[in-house]
């Protein structure tokens, strides 16, 4: 009997809050399609032509920023500006309401007043425009609903007037050099801000008081310190909270459990949180992802997590949790990923309580703990989601025969690591795969991955060292696709609805004028 069980899972979870890979693009990325008889407002057309002249005069600072004259060929005086690239007009009033200048060098136009001659502007895309500061004219665009300033060179503080723009719903200033926040307004302030992304900046200090209207908040990959403020618990619309890769300390607030019925993603990975997990989740829990990896959390795993029936990813790895194997997590019907590695978990794992424990589990990491005994064969038999189709037949972990996958992790295993798997072939084994077998194996792997794309995750695995019925070591490699990447479909639809509602409110207000 083996006294020490080690299950090592090599995985690479794609960051679903990655700005560069976001699938949610609220701004117009292509030219608008004019309605029959649409004709833009003359004064606004003049403003856009002046902007083109200013842009054409500005030379790009890198090869990634081409001359604007080559990027805006459709901006011609003798054509309707509502048909121009990057310009969106209102379908009835024909006022310019959207402007996409992403990729153009605007470094010399941050104080331009030309934008103020577009009084009905609601959406402004200034992504990758070589900006060194937040343009001053933005503060005066009273009807602005969506603003994207990501991937620039913006320094300084996040200005407090951002919270005071009553119409602003979406603000993305990720991938810049912002280093702090101006002091927030002292008096209670009204804000419509729902989406705030400040990922990948240089933000220092503590998290300030933010608008209670926010539903998406990402402060990931900064230099924030201090504790999570209690004010976050009063953000009753908060759905996604990401503060990973900072230097936040203290105990994770118990008050976050109040947000259990709205919070879908809680990502506190790689901070310096300590203490217990104090939560008592109710049956209204809506969490789908809980990531506390790489902190100093102690104590036991809260059994109230069984109320979080939507939970798909639970990552508590690299902490100081002292507990036994949380077999009761097997009750969760949608749990795909369970990471408990590098803690102080101990004792036997035990046999499953029912034949339906962990029904959707695909990724498991229990490595670097103090479990005793074998991995119970009962779990291996019921892990239905860890099956793969090969040549039309359903195969289990003990049978991924065929070519050993090529990759950095698999190349580290010696020849004897695959002992007992007579159907395997290819490097590092001396048994070579013939071309037909190699082709069938690769095609089967691809078929398996593609067949599961209807769910948020696709995966493949290989079993090594599973000889003589004794689990010496299990290595599960997988590919994870968070198909909605930055937002779940629910968030995207919800945010678009809020933006549409705010746009309509602005239009009604202007008509009353």
TrEMBL record:
<keyword id="KW-0472">Membrane</keyword>
<dbReference type="Pfam" id="PF13855">
    <property type="entry name" value="LRR_8"/>
</dbReference>
<keyword id="KW-1003">Cell membrane</keyword>
<keyword id="KW-0732">Signal</keyword>
<keyword id="KW-0677">Repeat</keyword>
<keyword id="KW-0433">Leucine-rich repeat</keyword>
<dbReference type="Pfam" id="PF12799">
    <property type="entry name" value="LRR_4"/>
</dbReference>
<dbReference type="InterPro" id="IPR001611">
    <property type="entry name" value="Leu-rich_rpt"/>
</dbReference>
<keyword id="KW-1133">Transmembrane helix</keyword>
<dbReference type="Pfam" id="PF08263">
    <property type="entry name" value="LRRNT_2"/>
</dbReference>
<dbReference type="InterPro" id="IPR013210">
    <property type="entry name" value="LRR_N_plant-typ"/>
</dbReference>
<keyword id="KW-0812">Transmembrane</keyword>
<comment type="similarity">
    <text>Belongs to the RLP family.</text>
</comment>
<dbReference type="Pfam" id="PF00560">
    <property type="entry name" value="LRR_1"/>
</dbReference>
<protein>
    <recommendedName>
        <fullName>Leucine-rich repeat-containing N-terminal plant-type domain-containing protein</fullName>
    </recommendedName>
</protein>
<dbReference type="InterPro" id="IPR025875">
    <property type="entry name" value="Leu-rich_rpt_4"/>
</dbReference>
<dbReference type="InterPro" id="IPR032675">
    <property type="entry name" value="LRR_dom_sf"/>
</dbReference>
<feature type="signal peptide">
    <location>
        <begin position="1"/>
        <end position="20"/>
    </location>
</feature>
<feature type="domain" description="Leucine-rich repeat-containing N-terminal plant-type">
    <location>
        <begin position="42"/>
        <end position="89"/>
    </location>
</feature>
<feature type="transmembrane region" description="Helical">
    <location>
        <begin position="457"/>
        <end position="481"/>
    </location>
</feature>
<keyword id="KW-0675">Receptor</keyword>
<keyword id="KW-0325">Glycoprotein</keyword>
């Amino acid at each position: 009997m083996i006294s020490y069980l080690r299950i090592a899972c090599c995985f690479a979870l794609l960051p679903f809050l990655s700005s560069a890979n976001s699938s949610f693009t609220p701004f117009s990325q292509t030219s608008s399609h004019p309605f029959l008889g649409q004709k833009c407002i003359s004064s606004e057309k003049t403003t856009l032509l002046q902007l083109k002249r200013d842009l054409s005069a500005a030379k790009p600072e890198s090869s990634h920023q081409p001359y604007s004259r080559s990027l805006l060929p459709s901006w011609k005086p003798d054509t309707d500006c509502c048909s121009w690239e990057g310009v969106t007009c209102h379908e009835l009033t024909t006022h310019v309401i959207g402007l996409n200048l992403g990729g153009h060098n605007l470094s010399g136009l941050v104080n331009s007043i030309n934008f103020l001659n577009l009084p009905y502007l609601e959406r402004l895309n200034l992504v990758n425009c070589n900006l060194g500061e937040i343009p001053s004219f933005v503060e005066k665009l009273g009807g602005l609903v969506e603003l994207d300033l990501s991937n620039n060179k913006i320094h300084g503080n996040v200005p407090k007037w951002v919270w005071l723009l009553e119409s602003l719903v979406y603000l993305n200033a990720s991938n810049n050099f912002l280093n702090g926040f101006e002091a927030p307004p002292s008096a209670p302030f009204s804000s419509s801000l729902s989406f705030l992304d400040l990922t990948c900046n240089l933000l220092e200090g503590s998290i300030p008081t933010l608008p209670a209207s926010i539903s998406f908040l990402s402060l990931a990959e900064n230099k924030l310190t201090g504790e999570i403020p209690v004010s976050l618990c009063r953000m009753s619309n908060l759905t996604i909270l990401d503060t990973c890769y900072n230097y936040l300390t203290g105990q994770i607030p118990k008050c976050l459990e109040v947000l259990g019925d709205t919070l879908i993603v809680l990502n506190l990975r790689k901070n310096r949180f300590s203490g217990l997990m104090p939560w008592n989740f109710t049956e209204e829990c809506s969490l789908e992802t809980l990531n506390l990896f790489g902190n100093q959390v102690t104590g036991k795993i809260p059994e109230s997590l069984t109320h979080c029936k939507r939970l798909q990813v639970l990552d508590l790895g690299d902490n100081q949790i002292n507990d036994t194997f949380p077999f009761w997590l097997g009750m969760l019907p949608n749990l795909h990923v369970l990471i408990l590695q590098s803690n102080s978990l101990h004792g036997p794992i035990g046999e499953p309580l029912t034949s339906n424990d962990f029904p959707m589990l695909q990724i498991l990491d229990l490595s670097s703990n103090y479990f005793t005994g074998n991995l119970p064969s009962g779990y291996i038999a019921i892990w239905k989601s860890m099956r793969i189709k090969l040549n039309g037949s359903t195969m289990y972990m003990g049978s991924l025969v065929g070519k050993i996958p090529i990759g950095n992790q698999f190349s580290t295993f010696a020849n004897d690591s695959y002992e007992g798997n007579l159907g395997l072939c290819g490097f590092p084994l001396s048994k070579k795969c013939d071309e037909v077998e190699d082709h069938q194996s690769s095609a089967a792997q691809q078929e398996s991955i593609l067949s599961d794309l209807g769910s948020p995750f696709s995966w493949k695995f290989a079993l090594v060292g599973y000889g003589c019925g004794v689990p010496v070591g299990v290595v599960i490699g997988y590919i994870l696709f968070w198909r909605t990447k930055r937002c779940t479909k629910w968030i995207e639809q919800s945010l678009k609805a809020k933006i549409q509602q705010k746009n309509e409110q602005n239009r009604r207000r202007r008509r009353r004028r």
